[in-house]
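Justification of computing resources. Each target in the renewal requires a structure prediction run like the one illustrated here; the chain below, 465 residues long, is used simply to show the kind of job we budget for.
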Amino acid sequence: MLTRKIFLTFNTMLLAATFLTFAACAQDDDRTAGTKPQAEVNNSSETYRQLNLFGDVFERVREQYVDPMTDEELVETAINGMLVSLDPHSAYLDEDDFAEMQVQTRGEFGGLGIEVTMENGIVKVVSPIDDTPAYQAGVQAGDYITHLDDEPIVGLTLSEAVDKMRGKVGTAIKLTIRRENTAEPIDISITRDIIKIKSVRHELKESNVGYIRITTFNQNTDTGLKKAVDDIKTKAGDHLLGYVLDLRNNPGGLLDQAIAVSDAFLDKGEIVSTRGRHEYDTKRDNSTPGDIVDGKPIVVLINGGSASASEIVAGALQDHRRAIVLGTQSFGKGSVQTVIPLPGHGAMRLTTARYFTPSGRSIQAKGIEPDIIVEPAKIEQVTGERLRESDLRGALANPDEAAKAKAKEEAKPEEKPPAKTETPVPEGADASKEGDAVDYQLSRAIDLIRGVSLYEKRLEQPKQN
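Resulting structure tokens:
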């Protein structure tokens, strides 16, 4: 026991010496050689003392813990504990986790299809990913996952909870969920699958509004956006009124892709600034000339599931007044994580900076406030008859209508069967699918694009005297 303790203490002291040597090399170049300041000597002594404490705890756990633990398990657990205690997004990634993270950024991975974070010891769903098992099972942004296969999550780290949700493709897992405004817990069974993410989807709405949905920011997003815009332009031609950029339930992704998407719509100006601990860590990313939608009106849709990279895009377009942001307040993740590979040991994900919108706003724990707040809602058609002027006894006839009636009478058109009357479908709904829910937020966005386009056209028309 004594020999082990001496050996461990020696290793701890060696580690401390290495750490201090590295720290000394990182000091400013203008520091002159000579006697170290007293403050630096005190800091060195405190570092040695803390590392000796770690060595003592490590040795005691290895010798006396109820179950045997390998040195590798203890060290990895200690490192992860240090990182996860910093903030919810810093963590240690073993080799398997690191490899899976690299696959995710390429747009394909295995799992349930949800982006999660840890809040008050419970896993919170940031957003489900479109067309994944979790999305199809009805998991919603803001849900709290309390149990996995009837086992409570409380006490687990976020990484441990995520590991439990992973598993072999085709196997099922039961999630117990607490949802706002729902008294009883909800049990949802989900079958794990390979998650293939198509990050950009698009279509041309009947009202000649281009609809582009970005589900996540992976390495294919910028390319997918350009293809979507080109396709919409080809289909709409000169009749295109504008675009709706849907970032709802987009959990984020790669920072460079968020910058590229913002740049696609901006002709000049700052997109985002990232500010780290030191002044030299500050970086500003600016847009380049060129707007791929040729200045057409844009409405950006966000909600509580819009986080990180999607908030960068919404904030940049909002600050430059390039788009109107509509929906509900976004998630509020305003920090940047750097993945630092550790050769032979996976990697660590470390929060290294905060990002700010072009106007200098930090959205950390605050989010993006929409220009127009529109809560999700159901549209119901109100039926009923109202008395009109034409129904009044002795009402004057409309001269324009009288002239039209006379012209029709003179033309003597062939009689046609009366047209069928159909229940009107609100804008944004698919009339071919009876019973489908109407996306109220999208309907409002499309109406807004139409209104802005109409207003701009009237401004261009010459005034009539």
